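Minutes, project huddle
Topic: does the predicted pose make sense with NAP bound?
PN asked that the exact inputs be recorded in the minutes so nobody has to dig through chat later. Recorded below.
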Amino acid sequence: MRAIICNNWGSPATLELREVPSPQPGPKQVLLRVRAAAVNFPDALIVAGKYQFRPEFPFSPGGEMSGDIIAIGSEVNHLAVGQSVVGLASHGAYAQESLVDASHVVPLPAGISDAELERAGSFLLTYGTSLHALKDRAEARAGETLLVLGAGGGVGLAAVEIGKRIGLRVIAAASSAEKRDAAIAHGADEVIDYTREDLRERIKTLTAGKGVDIVYDPVGGDFAEPALRSLGWRGRYLVVGFAAGDIPKIPINLLLLKGSALVGVFWGEFVRREPKLNAGNIAQLFAWLGEGKINPLISKRYPLSQAPAALDALLAREVVGKLVILPQQID
Ligand SMILES: NC(=O)c1ccc[n+]([C@@H]2O[C@H](COP(=O)([O-])OP(=O)(O)OC[C@H]3O[C@@H](n4cnc5c(N)ncnc54)[C@H](OP(=O)(O)O)[C@@H]3O)[C@@H](O)[C@H]2O)c1
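Predicted holo structure (tokens), as shared on screen:
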């Protein structure tokens, strides 16, 4: 089978397309023929050696996928060869075949179309993160106001859409007209171009001086402090990621003055530590997807050989919604 291989830490350009042996599932694993692999920001961080963990070389990046089960471990009883599933892993999805722990597999309906399979295989990480952030960490209540930074990106657009689903007023901040248009199409009530407009002043105007109840921040960098200062009384600031690169240093007196809270969000660890709560969230997301109540956006698809270009586009801040790699197409 062919796979995108990482053999040293670096930029996406260091990745290589290679012919490699088919892996064999361990007792508690399944082997997938990968039909769609999501492109997520952590994939780029793993290739650069900058993520929370570092796989052993050589490895394929990619933590989220959908496909068909082609082999099954001896202790796996609840899944069958031929079933279409979503699989979550730390890495391995940018390949024609990939191993996934059977406990991290979600079965899909038989006969699912290619388009549905691509969406199912590329929305769980972003929508799972945003649902966990808003529901479990911020304990958002209908009628509250939410500010989303990086609102046209993967987790940001998911936060916009889930925010609307749970009855929030959503203010979406993003750098390009295309990203802001996507945020509006996914339910945002107001948009801010935070590269040109003064974030604090706009929030003051939009909230009649009251401030927002929740900030969802996957960006970090220079926007963090003005966003934190835009919280209202008892506001919650969700620390989701640092796509801008710099980890903000926050004067903690700001929390005291607003009676506000800085709240960390780490979906991968939540999945590991709180499987029951996560299973409920996943069921909720698949129900919303099936009923058309959420509408995850895939803006571009790439053949396997173009996976480095997909990661480059993500790092260049160009992506609206999600990118997907189709590993059965080589080029
Ligand atoms: N905590 C968790 O559990 C969790 C889970 C998933 C992802 N994350 C993190 O969340 C962050 C976003 O992930 P994502 O998949 O949504 O990525 P994404 O689709 O690339 O979106 C990131 C957004 O950040 C903004 N940005 C600002 N400066 C940037 C820069 N220098 N390079 C790239 N983007 C920049 C961009 O929006 P504008 O152009 O509009 O500014 C971009 O749309 C990452 O740090 C990721 O590791 C965390």
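Observations noted during the meeting:
- The CA atoms of residues 96 and 327 lie 5 Å apart.
- The chain has a mean pLDDT of 97.
No decisions taken; revisit at the next huddle.
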